[in-house]
Amino acid sequence: MKKNAGDLKMSLKQARKLCVLERLCEGRMSNREAASNLNLSVRQTQRVKSRFSKLGPESLVHGNTGGKPPNYVAEHLRDFVALQARTRWEGASSSHMSELLLAEKGLHLSAKTMTRILKEHGIKSPFTHKGPKRHRRRERKKRLGEMVQVDASPFDWLGNGSMLALHGAIDDATGKILALWLEPTECLFGYFHVLDRMIRTFGVPGILYSDAHTIFFSPKSGKLSVEEELNGCTAALTQFGKALDTLNILPLKASSAQAKGRVERLWGTLQHRLVVDMRLAGVSTIGEANAFLATYPDTHNARFAVEPEREEAAFLPAPSPNDLTYILCKRAFRKASGDSTISWKGRKLMLLDEKHRQKLLKRGSAIEVLTLLDESDVALYDGVIHHLDVPKDADDRKASLKDTAKKTQKDTEEKTPVIPAPDHPWRRWYGNKPNPRELIHSATSAAKVG
To answer: Which strand (E) or helix (H) includes residue 169?
Structure first.
């Protein structure tokens, strides 16, 4: 039935109340009977009757019925949210969209309101809320820096289809991101950069909690090199393990991904928030991403980090920046040759002293080559850092060898082959035995005669 202009929309309770009041006003019901039916007192029933007599059925409907609530979201704002959710904010959660709207427009809408707007416009959120799982969780550490979880996550972080590995460190007590670094793949230098940023900002943590990747723990348990035995090592250490041993950080191996669940859950958060934030910031390369990631943890921590149980931090003072540079590096040993040079990456290199002269080395001396975070190489000899350079005569010697090889090849090509004469000594047969060639010639001649 089509609704008329004067029609009122009532609930079942209001319609029942209307019927009782009509009978009361017509005299077919007493005040006491009406009060009993309406579950009101007699005096309150008389007040309702008086109001009904003046205004009629409209007195039963609340004055705000049919009006828009004070917190109603305007249509243009709903359309704006839906448009951004399909374009710039694509892939973001409702909570993240609420934060972005507040940052860009200064307007606050709750995450639930965002969800309702998306449903109205037929936009399905890729994230659903899951109830808490019933399992026993490990208690957080009590102090900031007491234990740090590290891991890497391969994902399309730049949103261009390329799978890159984001390396990160998160504090166990507070859930605070301590450092992030992006690399093409999970690698040693990615974790070195994370450790470098964390130590320079906060200090040296007590425990580093990681998985059983060979970057952290050597598969050659019990097998030590000669250099490691001479240095007093009791277990095989990886390049990363040597740096932790120098910094006095205890490495701890997680038996499963769930054991280090704090850093695992961090990747789920970053994969739908960080991608959107970097896209809005115009980040398109790994270099731009690492510059952006230097300050991004502050934004994340302000939203998600919690306070530790104890105020004092467990971080130890960081070494000097110069010492930290030579701790977080890749190490390899080489032996000095007789001309005081070492072989490194297919080249002969010499060590330079403080006056940039070649360092004289005893043949067979052990030289430790360090590859720093900027991918430059230096040498450690007798506790002193030396820069490496190509010997001055190396290029001349190499050019001379090339010229000699070319000259020999040219002479070989131009030389006419020499054919020995029939009576040349090379053709003679020495000894008491008959010449095989003469025997073959005689046998051939006899066959022809026969």
So the answer is: strand 164-171
